[in-house]
Amino acid sequence: MERWKRLIKKALEAGADYADLRYIENENQGIRCKNGKIEDLNLGEDRGVGLRVWVNGSWGFASMSLAEENLDKADQLSGEAVALARAANKGQPPRELAPVEPAQTEFTSEIEEDPFDISLDEKIELLQKAHQGMKGEKIFLTTGNINCQKEKKLFISSEGSEIEQTFYRTGAGISAMSTDGKDRQIRSYPSAFGGNYAQKGFEFIREMDLEGEAERVRREAEGLLTAEQCPKGEMTLILGGCQLGLQVHESVGHPIELDRVLGTEAAFAGTSFLTPDNLKELVYGSELVNIYADATMPGALGSFAYDDEGVPGQRVPIVQNGRFENYLTSRETAPVLKQKSNGTMRAIGWSNFPIIRMTNINLEPGNSSLEELIQGTEKGILLDMIKSWSIDDKRINFQFGTEIGWLIEDGKIRGMLRNPTYTGSTLPFWRSCDGIAGSSEWKMWGVPNCGKGEPMQAAPVGHGASYARFRNIKVGVSR
Amino acid sequence: MKKEELRKLVAESPAEHTEIFCQQTNLKLSRFAESIIHQNISQETANLTVVVHDQKRKGSANTTDLSPSSVRQAIERAHKAASYQKPDPDFPGLPFTEEIAPELPSYSQKTANCSPEKRAEGIAEIRRIGEREGFKGFGTFSTQANKYISINSSGNYREWMTSQAFLKVLYMGGPGGGEGFAQDVQVNVDDLNVSEVAEKAAKKCAATQERETLQPGEYTVILEPLAVCELLGYLSFIGFNGLACNEGRSFFTGKIGEQVMAEKISIIDDPYDENGLPFPYDGEGMPKRPIPLVEEGIYKNYVYDHYLAQKEDRKSTGHALPPVFRTYGPMPTHLKMRPGKETNDQLLQKVEKGVLVTRFHYVGVIHPQKTIITGLTRDGTFWIKNGKVDHALKNLRFTQNIIEALKKVVGVGDSLGKMPFQMGAPQSPALVIDGFNFTGVSEME
């Protein structure tokens, strides 16, 4: 601690108006199983420090990985960061950072079973049993993975914050790929692209019951080979929670990042249609649509006690009864709206500069149910599980593909559909929402790799969702 | 780390076979918005991966601490991980070769030494050009120096360095809210012509002031080099990927010798090309070498790493990824499409009615084996009428089979553009494609 305080002090002496520092130690365990064979078993560690300084309204940031032999080298970071901030400042007017109350505190994820106390044997056996359950005549490839991370992060600032946070993150998933020689299909559980993640202990992975779900995954992967192609046309669409989480992520979560709105991602990920004149004015969705950014949910992947500027994690309304209420903000961007930061600045690891990130962006439960949503659908499709995704640089036009779909006719499920896709425009889509299932069908989905920033930073974020229904959506777009 | 230290650590490993791959990167990066630098960073990172095989059981471990004690601990962790594995009967041992890659101009000390002031001067020039036109500049100016080491217990040791200076400029603004983009990447920062890149972006921005809506449908397109590079990047991952070919997940599985694209298309993976961020060795320390993949539309070769090569009784083609990415399979990282002889004007004259695309955005794979992807155009999409650019268009969504598009190529440009990816850069000319499927428009309703 004293070493890092000294670094902050040196930064101030070198001319910084403000400085903060993150010292991070990471422990990772990753197991990847392919066709029952452990393809990769990696035990990783990393350690480093990143120093951010604010000089006359410009940021400078310097970071380095640490070895026992080079701890003293870290002392150079203060001079380097200040020099970078000075080089960035080309006469722009000084700006103020939004105020924050300094905090001295600690936080640790609430876990029941430390994932690093569970033997590798047990984890491997769990994946291999799931593989056995997924084996089938038409299954040519099965995968499974378990990932565990422990991140210890110290944040200190020149304003007096000293915050130690320890995060446990666990996740797992399985998938089966099928073929009949002509086509290939995939089913995954509990989510695609590596499964579901949470800020929980190993109990989270046990509760998934990968072995118990494996047979269904196999059955559906094989069933998709003979399923009907997704129909083309405009019809009613019901989305399952996993896919709806992605829909929230891409068409709500990213557009509300205020740094993106102000252009700092313009040349890379793009900007946002959600210009500040829309704040508290725009009808984002139907009156049923209520969305919160909630960093305070215990166990959710995007939760934390304090962000990487020392601002407390918060629960913030984003869309209330359909109306757009708030952006995700930082100490630098919030003053543009004459606000205080709502605490969403995070950097991935010690090496990166913090940027605005989603926390847990949740579509609140409604008062319907999946059964009622289906019953109220004359002709439509029910889709779930992320397969492909794409959205434009202003977050307006999107197209998503899912692993599986089901045809709905006259209020009943009629059969499985393969290669489903749907496309639309963000505001008409959310305004067409006419039903949301309730809390008993609501679930958190943890996404460990939300990409943003240059260099790219893959952030852990979360999305809560149940089922929701949308009218007159264009489906079946593929070629 | 020093060579002798690493040799000693590998020799002392308790495992039968030990491989170490280390990348040290010094990244300096300035991001700017509204022509003001909002992020100015320096990252000094190290990533070392140990892979051990003991009685054909494999384990791996990572560390960012390059001190001998830490590397020794990583070897121990990898050895522990291996003990939980079942033997892999296909493990072929670790590769060794005495072959040395040719000296390549892959590194520039000038790039490594580039100061924040030099980047700021470049961004000031971008600002000046933008202000002259009434546009605001957004983008990134970065320099990166990398040192790689690959060593294994079979005696292979390779050490090499690369650098890249990368500039992206997006102008936005003007009376109609235009957007124009250009970029360049070079090994030597002095070869980056900031003014030229900025002028190119400004010209695009000026031309996109009033954008009209085009109804979705199939149109003839001219894809500029950046757009084609994006297609090549995806084709590398889902198509040319040696493991995907081996596992039957690739379009190219079993198609060697078949006409798969138009005769005008030839694609080589050329890590030696001086213009394409040259790279001497692969992630196993084996020499990379040029390998033709498509010759006049006929598919020619699979790519291999050591493991897959032994499995198929072949030789490694030098396409192993570093251990941390190796489960994705061997992949070409320096795809280069052979340029044609047609100038940009000649390409335009081939199009009576069609769409000109500067670049793509947020591409997603819908069906990997069929190479169906979707994405959007951005930062300069235009309607072509009677061989001339007629007006700008709102961004369009496409949903397209890459292979089908490359079968319909009727024109190939005479100059190459490139786009940096991990450890390389695809290069491509512009293409005229007689049929490209646009499935949506990006506009507020």
Task: Give the SSE layout.
The complex is a heterodimer of chains A (479) and B (445).
Chain A: H1 2-13, E1 18-34, E2 37-55, E3 58-65, H2 76-88, E4 104-108, H3 120-134, E5 139-157, E6 162-179, E7 184-189, E8 196-198, H4 203-208, H5 210-224, E9 228-229, E10 233-239, H6 241-253, H7 258-261, E11 291-294, E12 315-320, E13 323-324, E14 345-346, E15 355-356, E16 361-363, H8 370-375, E17 379-391, E18 397-409, E19 412-418, E20 421-425, H9 426-431, E21 433-436, E22 443-452, E23 457-465, E24 468-475
Parallel strand pairs in A: 4-6, 9-19, 10-17
Antiparallel strand pairs in A: 1-2, 1-5, 2-3, 5-6, 6-7, 6-8, 10-24, 11-12, 11-16, 12-13, 14-15, 17-18, 18-19, 18-20, 20-24, 21-24, 22-23
Chain B: H1 3-12, E1 17-33, E2 36-54, E3 57-63, H2 68-83, H3 109-112, H4 116-133, E4 135-152, E5 157-173, E6 178-186, H5 194-207, E7 211-212, E8 217-223, H6 225-240, H7 242-246, E9 267-269, E10 291-295, E11 298-299, H8 306-311, E12 335-337, H9 344-349, E13 353-367, E14 372-385, E15 388-393, E16 396-401, H10 402-407, E17 409-412, E18 417-418, E19 427-428, E20 431-441
Parallel strand pairs in B: 7-15, 8-13
Antiparallel strand pairs in B: 1-2, 1-4, 2-3, 4-5, 5-6, 8-20, 9-10, 9-12, 10-11, 13-14, 14-15, 14-16, 16-20, 17-20, 18-19
Helix pairs in contact in B: 1-2, 4-5
Give the total of beta strands of chain A: 24
The count of strands of chain B amounts to: 20
Interface with most residues: A-B, 79 and 90 residues
Overall spatial form of chain B:
globular
- Overall mean pLDDT of chain A stands at 96
Radius of gyration of chain A, in Å, reads 23 Å
